[in-house]
Design brief:
CATH class of the largest domain: Alpha Beta
Shape: globular
CATH superfamily of the largest domain: Histidine kinase-like ATPase, C-terminal domain
Number of helices: 8
Number of strands: 12
CATH topology of the largest domain: Heat Shock Protein 90
Order of helices and strands: HEHEEHEHEHHEEEEEHEHE
Radius of gyration: 19 Å
Strand content: 25-35%
Number of domains: 2
Helix content: 25-40%
Largest sheet: 5 strands, mixed
Bound molecules: adenosine-5'-triphosphate, magnesium ion
Length: 264
């Protein structure tokens, strides 16, 4: 009980540190500029033995994205990289253009053909074994001590990438560092601007179980209504601690966690 309260408090602290409550606002965004900005932000706090290196594409890397969410994703990844390099090391952030062809999409479940901006974050830290690698994106999965991590950082990154119709991959070997590759749809595709939602499928639900966490009653009610309407089963929680308790009890059944970025 004491532990779960502590974790709840930690969860809150983290969510508050890494997020600001704003409407999701997507606009044409140059990832090169975002990366420069995050680098400036990090350099004020980063330990001296950690170096940040950028390799940015020469042409603007334009995507349709919410700058605050992109910044949050980059910060979560950078903080993880720092945590993995307590003896120092290097974080390398790169941007480049990439194309998913049919072949790539056949071998990478969930990838859709098209042109993307690839954002790569690598570190020279302690890396992960297979067991950890297989769970990194799961909410509440952490290898850090109680009070040090909530296991939500990468779950959030994953959520952010998915809401941007993007794709994320994790490569890591024990003792030889970690690389995350994030692909976001390029806004300018072979000379024409993508129409918003051009490739979006019809809304269609499933029969999975979702844990919806939000402190605002009307959002929970709206969420339950919308999600149950399309077939999902929905649990709700109003705060981080409630969410953790529910998740501990029902994690076998819960397939997805929807989190408000700031919860009490
Ligand atoms: N760059 C990395 N190098 C090595 N291990 C990593 C790296 N990034 C993530 N991990 C592993 O994945 C786990 C989950 O990461 P995630 O960011 O989701 O949670 P966390 O860092 O443990 O906690 P939180 O981000 O909520 O503070 C980490 O506990 C760690 O074991
Ligand atoms: Mg983390």
């Amino acid at each position: 009980m004491h532990n779960s309260a502590k974790r709840g408090a930690e969860l809150t602290r983290q969510l508050l540190t890494f997020s600001r409550k704003v409407q999701s606002e997507r606009r044409p965004l140059d990832l090169n500029q975002e990366v420069e900005q995050v680098k400036n932000l990090l350099e004020r706090t980063i330990p001296k033995m950690i170096e940040i290196e950028l390799h940015l594409d020469k042409t603007p890397a334009i995507v349709s994205a919410d700058p605050i969410q992109v910044e949050q994703a980059l910060m979560n990844l950078a903080v993880n990289a720092m945590d993995a390099m307590s003896d120092g090391g290097k974080i390398i952030i790169e941007t480049e253009r990439a194309t998913f062809d049919e072949e790539f999409c056949r071998t990478h479940l969930g990838a859709r053909p098209g042109e993307y901006v690839l954002l790569t974050i690598s570190d020279t830290g302690h890396g992960m074994n297979k067991e950890i690698r297989e769970h990194v994106f799961e909410p509440f999965y952490t290898t850090k001590e109680v009070g040090k991590g909530t296991g939500l950082g990468l779950a959030m990154v994953y959520g952010i990438v998915k809401t941007h119709e993007g794709y994320i991959l994790c490569y890591s070997e024990l003792d030889s560092g970690t690389t995350f590759k994030i692909y976001l749809p390029a806004l300018v595709q072979s000379g024409h601007w993508r129409e918003a939602g051009e490739e979006d499928d019809q809304l269609k639900g499933g029969d999975e179980t979702i844990l919806l966490v939000d402190d605002e009653k009307y959002i929970r009610e709206l969420g339950v209504e919308l999600l149950t309407d399309v077939g999902y089963e929905v649990f709700t929680a109003t705060d981080g601690e409630g969410a953790l308790q529910l998740y501990r009890k029902e994690h076998q059944r819960i397939d997805l966690v929807i989190l408000d970025l700031v919860i009490p």
